Known about the structure:
The chain has 487 residues and is α/β, with parallel strands linked by helices. The protein has 16 helices and 17 strands. The chain starts with 11 loop residues before the first strand and ends in a 7-residue tail after the last strand. This is Putative ferric reductase.
Amino acid sequence: MVRYAPADSETTAGPIESRQVVDRAGTGSVAKLSGMTTLRLTRPRTHQPPTNHRAVARAGLYLVMGANIGIVTALFAVAGPSVNPLITVGRLFGLYAALVMAFQLLLVARLGWLDRRLGMDRLTSLHRLTGFGLVWLLVGHVVFVVAGYADLTSSGPVDELVTLATTIEGVLRAIVAFALIMIVGAVSARYARKRLAYETWHFIHLYTYLAVVLAFTHQVAAGSSFVGSLFGQVYWWTLWGAALGAVLLGRAVLPLWRNFRHRLRVSAVVPESDNVVSVYMTGQDLDRLAARAGQFFLWRFLTRGRWWQAHPYSLSAAPDGKSLRLTAKAVGDGSAGLRDLKPGTRVFAEGPYGAFTTMHQRRASALLIAGGVGITPIRALLEEIRGHVIVLYRVNKRDDAVLVRELVDIARTRGALVHVLTGPPSARDENGPLLGAQSLAGMVRDIWDRDVFVCGPPPMTDVVLKGLRELGVPKDQIHAERFSLAS
C-alpha cells in the first residue's frame, strides 16, 4: 500500500504496490499493479480559482425565471382583478403554470451552453421538480376558476365546467391540455416510471408538446392579461417562441446537422472482458466536434431492431479528432447487443452532453474515483485533466478492472497514481467502510486541496459523496453526474 505524504510535505511517495480490503467476515483480496514509477507529491500552488461555470449558469436560470415572474405579475396587476376573488386567484395560478411550462421546455431543450455547465442530470432533476409545481398550479387554476364561476351562477362545479368549455373560446383546449399533463405527470411518478420501458414512457411524454400548444392558444384566446394588451401579446408570443425554438434547435436541428456533418460509422468492436465491449467509431471532421473527456452521447446504431433505441454511453477515451470510443457492460439488451455490431454500421449520435469535464476543475490537483464500468469517463478524464492525479478504481474482484492496463500506461506517462481497490460491496479497511470518509482521508491526505470526480454505481457514489461531505470537502470541488436519458 502506498504511504501518502502529508499535503504540506515535499517528500516522495514510493511505487504503488497493492491495496487490501476485507469484508465484514474478515476475508480479503489484493489488487496489484506493477511498473509504476516513483512519484513526487507536492502541495498544490495557491492560485486564483477559475470561473465557477455551474454557479453562473444556475444564477442565470434563476435570473431569467425571476424576471419573467416579475413581468407576468405586472401584466396581471395591470389587467386588474376579476369579478370574483376566486377567479382572480385562479387566473394568477394559470399564468404562473404557463410560465413554468415554458421554463420546463428550456430545461429539456438540451442546449449545449446549459448542459456543459449544469449537466443533463441536474437539468432533468430541475425539470422533474418544477413539473410537480406545474401540476399543482394547474390544479389550483382549474379549481379556483371553476369554483369562482360556479359561485357567480350558483351552479354546480361540473355543470359550470361544461358551460365554460362550450361557451368560452379556448377553454375546451385548456381542458384537453390539463388532462394530457395529468397523464404525463402520473406516468412520470417514480413508482410508474420504474415499471415502464424508456421508449414507452418517452412516447407518452411527447404528448406534453401537444399540451403546450393547446395551453398556449388558450392563454392567447382567453387570458385577460393579454387580450387587451399589445405588449402582453408580444411578450407572450416571444416567450413561447423562444421556449419552443430552443427545443426545436436542441432536440432536432443540431443533432440532425451534426450527424449529417460527421457521418459516424462503427470502425471496430473490441471485447474488453467477458461482459464488457468497446465500440470504435470514425467519421468526418471529428476535430470540429465539440466533445470533451467525461461527456456522453445518446447513441443509436442504425440496424434493424436497434435504430429506434437510444442509449447513453460515456466516451471511454478523450476525443482525438479522428475517432470516438465508448465502452459498455452488458447489463441489458441494448448493451449486450453492442458485441454484435458490424464495422460499417451507421451511427446516429446525440450530444455531446454532460458537465463531468475539466471545465469545472477548481484546484491544481484531482482525485478520480470510479466504480465498475464507471471507469469509462474517468479513464477519458485522466488523459485531459491537469495537475497531479490520483485514481481510485473500485471493483469486486481483480478481473472486473477493465481498461486497467490503459490506466497504468496513461498514469506512467503523466505521473499519476492508480489504486485498484477490490472486495465485496460490504468491504472495509482499517479506517472503516471502503471509500467512506475516514478511508478517503487515509488514502488521500490532501483531499481538501483536490477536485474530486466520482462515477460508478449509485450505492458506491452515494457512499463517496457522503464521505466527502463529512470530510468537509468544498461542494464546488465535488463532481458527480448520473448518466441517464432525460425527457
